[in-house]
Specification:
CATH architecture of the largest domain: 3-Layer(aba) Sandwich
CATH topology of the largest domain: Rossmann fold
Number of domains: 2
Radius of gyration: 23 Å
Largest sheet: 10 strands, mixed
Number of helices: 9
Strand order of the largest sheet: 1-2-4-3-7-8-9-12-11-10
Length: about 375
């Protein structure tokens, strides 16, 4: 009578072990054999859709070292039930380093590689494609911004630790990638150090290549139409010997309840908090805590989605993208004031419009702008 019970227990043990896996997968992409580590949590059973979290190592690094020594998402995945992915960057033939953004001239484009991984894993597993997230360290953080810019239709939100964002002019002139062009309200978390002296992640930026932290938060706050000023709070200084403290800055009340959050590590260096440098926060935990609240539609269970949709009902702005002339229609007879902001948050034009007026914007350079009118914000793209 005990044999069936023993057999059942053995089968149960087998399936429990099978459900918790760490696999190195291979993908032949763009003429190269590429690989990536996939961690399947013990809670995954295939019956429920689960989120996907990409983790990108720094330039010159490896996916296995990033997993084992800096950003171990496995314990979080086990409790939160998501699949963690650690892709390996390809070797840049110009200098022999593992890199997400190869030096020009190159046709290498790892954004397409990541989309191929999403498609592959969506076939192999029950993935919630509305909840695909990205995070990275150093150059991996820069690459996370690129996914937010260039694979925005597949990425719900992203986080960058000790990594900056490319200036649009540099993205266009050097990489020939076009301007950053997100298409939906996007949750963004950045964890920079004020004493990070890496040229790729300096808090003050490195023009004309990398944006400053203030320029980055302004860009994404404008895109998401959040509050202009952040709410600032001090994080408890639980480790007084690490030489740094943390200040939380959050821009809230964006479209579809999306927020932009900065965990500013004061006196922090080129680190992954929780593993190196600051120990008041754990970057891996903070990333999941923030990103998990969002999907591609904004904050999960956001109560203001209808309010966001009402903006497009009230205003008609066309053509968009535009070349020189822009027509604005709205449902009121009064004259309205408008302001146009650059992607860095600088006012480039102001004026007044009546219903069905045509605005001449020929003086503006081709890029992404934010039009603010009657308390609403609209993204404009000049070709």
């Amino acid at each position: 009578m005990k044999k069936p019970t023993l057999l059942f227990s053995a089968l149960l043990l087998f399936f429990n072990l099978f459900s918790q896996q760490q696999i190195i997968k291979n993908l032949f992409f763009d003429g190269q054999n590429r690989n990536y580590i996939v961690y399947i949590p013990s809670s995954y059973d295939g019956t429920t859709q689960v989120p996907l979290v990409f983790n990108f190592h720094g330039g010159g690094g490896t996916s296995s070292d990033f997993l084992n020594y800096e950003n171990d998402m496995r314990p979080i995945a086990d409790t939160a039930n998501f699949i963690a992915v650690y892709p390996q960057a390809a070797v840049d033939p110009t200098d022999g380093s593992n890199s997400w953004l190869h030096k020009t001239p190159t046709t290498h484009n790892d954004v397409n590689f990541i989309e191929a991984i999403i498609d592959t894993l969506s076939y192999d597993y029950n993935i919630d494609n509305d909840r695909v997230y990205a995070c990275g360290y150093s150059e991996g953080g820069i690459f996370s911004y690129e996914l937010g810019c260039r694979l925005n239709n597949r990425i719900a939100g992203f986080a960058s630790v000790s990594g900056s964002m490319l200036v649009d002019a540099f993205r266009v002139s050097y990489y020939n990638l076009g301007n950053c062009s997100p298409i939906h309200p996007t949750a963004v978390l950045l964890i920079p150090g004020t004493s990070d002296f890496s040229p790729h992640s300096s808090y003050s930026g490195l023009q004309p290549y990398y944006m400053s932290v203030n320029e980055i938060t302004t860009y994404w706050a404008n895109h998401n139409n959040t509050n202009t000023n952040p709410t600032v709070t001090s994080v408890p200084n639980t480790n007084t010997s690490d030489g740094s403290t943390v200040e939380m800055r959050i821009w809230e009340n964006g479209d579809n309840c999306v927020a932009v959050q900065e965990l500013k590590v004061i006196n922090g260096g080129h680190d992954w908090p929780g593993s190196s440098g600051n120990m008041d926060i754990n970057a891996s935990q903070e990333i999941w805590k923030f990103l998990s609240k969002y999907d591609v539609n904004g904050l999960i269970n956001c109560g203001s989605t209808n309010l966001f949709n009402s903006y497009t009902n009230k205003f008609e702005i066309f053509p968009n993208p535009f070349t020189d002339l822009l027509t604005i229609k709205f449902n009121t007879k009064k004259e309205l004031n408008f302001e146009i902001f650059s992607s860095f948050g600088r006012i480039v034009m102001t004026g007044n419009v009546n219903n069905n007026d045509v605005i001449d914007l020929s003086v503006l350079e081709p890029q992404v702008y934010i039009l603010k009118i009657d308390g609403n914000s609209h993204k404009l793209i000049k070709k």
